[in-house]
Amino acid sequence: MERKIKKVLVANRSVPAVRVIQTCQDRKIPTTAVYSTPDRLAAHVFMANSAVHIGDAPPSESYLNQDKIINAARSTGANAIHPGWGFLSENAVFAKKVQDAGLIWIGPSAEVIDKMGDKIRAKKTAVEANVPVIPGVNNPKSPDDIRKWMKDEDVAYPIMIKATAGGGGKGMVRVQQECELEGAFQQAKSEAKKSFGDEEVLVEKFIQKSRHIEVQIVADSHGNVIHLFERECTIQRRNQKVIEEAPSPSITPEIRQDICQTAVRLMKAIGYTSAGTVEFLFDADTQKFYFLEVNTRLQVEHGVTELITGVDIVSLMIDIAQGETLHFAQEDINPNRWALEVRLNAEDPKNFSPSFGKVSRLHLNAGPGIRVAQGIFEGGEIPPYYDSLAMLLMTAGPDRETAIMKMDSVLCRNLRVEGVKTLAPMLLSIIRHPKFIEGDFSTKFLEQHMAELVASFKEVDHEDEALKIAKYVAEISALGTPNWI
After folding, report:
1. Which of 87, 277, 347, 406 is 20 to 30 A from residue 131's alpha carbon, by CA?
2. Which segments constitute the Biotin carboxylation domain (predicted)?
3. In which domain, by residue range, is 356 found?
4. Whether residues 237 and 341 fall in one domain
């Protein structure tokens, strides 16, 4: 049954909130923003038609406060809630609360979120749907349980210990050798408990030369499940993605068809609706792929898929939430571009430590084939309480070489951010690295090349800028005003 969305509350901040609001503006759907005290002058607050203060800086008092968010929707006349990504986007309890309040939840059902949020249940579902999974053991109670599994299954180190709840790289510890097992087991359980309130873990064989490939799915409530092809998300640091691209340079057309159809089969099996992503680990040595997890939300990197397919995924989520049928079939999706995305975080490019404060200068010259999802503005503040993502920079072209060339131009010449440090120098070093250009990399790329990447760039700090200005002033004083001024 179709339910018309009249106004959308975006239960998020910064880049994800901006992204959702942009589509709502295109569709002339009014929006409500929510904000914490330090975000009162944030970009998403100015973009929305109305905004509600929901608490102080700690996420538990603001962006994770479910009742305040639902009350904000009611008080501003919003009859739908879009969670963006992060915060409450994969919280089954919140999704159910939204629906119980008589509001429209723009996302998959609470039941599916709950089922796929547990890695053990998700893996079991994948096995039942005949989807290949990485060899592993569920819920080991002690390191001895892990040792027994390794002996019985003839598994050698390294292995990966993972929290069964949550995601985003939290609660994941790689174990290289036997002497690390005891400490890694306790570390993974501790991180899982701290991040997700659940210390249960699973253990899997670690694939040495792995690539991270995910398939974007959209599904309506009428049984139509369509894939929008795959994305390559292999360049990561501590299981957090840094650069993404579509399509993947790692796989053949035959593997592409197989992995995409496998993702569709799994999503049909679990009764998925809305937009979602099936993540796989691809073994470059054996050319085999294995199920990792289902992300029951909009992905950060969804923009590269939009660029190569011409589809607005956020808009589709709105259509599906209203009960509409997908207006295209699988054969209508024919990617004809290559797209690249970098995550411009407010972090020190030498060590990835967060950098917060006032953005004293922001210049971005976006030309053809360049797309930006911007969560900051000149004069705005980047607070120390939340994710450090400042903006997403995407480029597209007829081939991978062109997409990389355009990204090089953006990072090298067309972007300037002052007041905070960003990953721009590191991102530029990565896309210029011969191995990246060749498409020859694994999830350990940054780990293997970190020193080399850092050595290849030189930051221009504020002292350098001050010296340039002083030199210019001195020249004007000594030589007079140039003719061109």
Report:
1. 87
2. 4-451
3. 210-462
4. yes
